[in-house]
Design goal:
This protein has 474 residues and is an alpha/beta fold. Helices cover 29% and strands 19% of the residues. The longest helix is centred in the last third of the chain and has 20 residues, at 417-436.
Length: 474
Amino acid sequence: MKHTSRRSFIKSAGLATGALGFNILHAQNKGDKLRLAFIAAGGKAGAQINNAKTAGDICTCFAEVDKGAWGGVLNNWKDAKGYQDFRQLFDKEKDYDAVVVTTPDHQHFMPTALALMAGKACYTQKPLVHTVWEARQVLEGTKKFKVATQMGNQGHANNGNRRIYEFVNGGLLGDVTEIHCFSNRPIWPQGGPRPSGEDSVPESLDWDLWIGPAPMRPYKKDTYHPFKWRGYYDFGGGALADMACHTMDSIFMAMNPGFPTKIEVLEINGHSDDQFPAGSIIKWSYAAGKLPNGKDRPAFDVYWYDGKLKDADGKDVDAADLAHTRIPKELLAMPDGKPMNLPKSGNVYVGSKASLLVSGDYGDNSRILPLSKAKEVGNPPQLLERLPLGGSEQDHWNEWRAAALGQKAWDSPGSNFLYAAPFTETILLGNVALRVGKGKALDWDAPNIKFSNSEEANKWISKEYRKGWEIKIV
């Protein structure tokens, strides 16, 4: 795997402004509008365009491979300079302070890397990157260049996740020893063979640029672009990378887990070489450590449930429904003795004093389990600040914006890359385990970025990049 060096790319792309120049810029322009370069203008970019408009920011340039989606920017900033190839934008444009990356997952890394290397603030959608190697590159690059960053897992700003943090760090749950996370994803095709056939590429779309670093394959209408790419190994991260950056976020906020020591696929359904499985159950194990409040916590396990699995009769069942079989029965007992219905997405924190049921992906609704302990446990103490708009997506943007403008410290955003890169790495380790399959407990050697007991798993830590799409930050 060959990667373009930082020095050679900066020389060819004219990115020699550097982090120091960027910091001086913002010291001189504190409180001014943020000048943005959008990398992608359709899909989720629409939400960030609205965030920017609400905050009074401006887009000076953008890149979008499908000209049919250019209106997302041009309808709001008619003078913004557009490109189909973001590499040309980085080569030619200088009049911007920050980069917003909302491409499909397989394209996140290069524009994020270029932003860091050029000393630009960077907001990249979840999951931050596409491979474990890329996640570690972004972590080390953020440490080196010290620019304002934020991953777009907007629920991190929500008050609900802060409340979960307070239940754990306020001591109300006691020692948390296992956490169960369940998701209603995927809502796109997964688990099948590679699609056959080929369709004509729309005139507005540059298919070669859309493929980017991935292996070339034929265009198929309504198969990859603009949405269903998530289910393919070459382009997305499946149900896990799509939603775990939300559903597991409170775990990283509240538990300070560090890197896992083991990852294992417990159940899998509909595995193929081309697509993520139709359903899975994955387990991560974490060593004992310290909570964010500095107090000791024991080792604990995290379980993830997504998609459809087969029951004993061969019928499809929601993987999330099988969480019932692993969560202690007494926690889910209703007054009539029947087990409660779990939400389709959420978490259960199992603690030594009490447990916590979280409904939804963003921590917005949490209650004590068993229900009989709710009054005894009560509400947690407030340990974290509440954001001005109640934890909205705009709060998440504004938090990053303040750091990008130099109004707050570069590492002040809650989901900055120092936090988000290890979080994303953990999620992507689960996807590596899916490649290996059921029944192999993989030992993760985090300092050396490898599995100590599986060369097969080590093959999937990174990927091959097409010529012209290789880059290395550090």
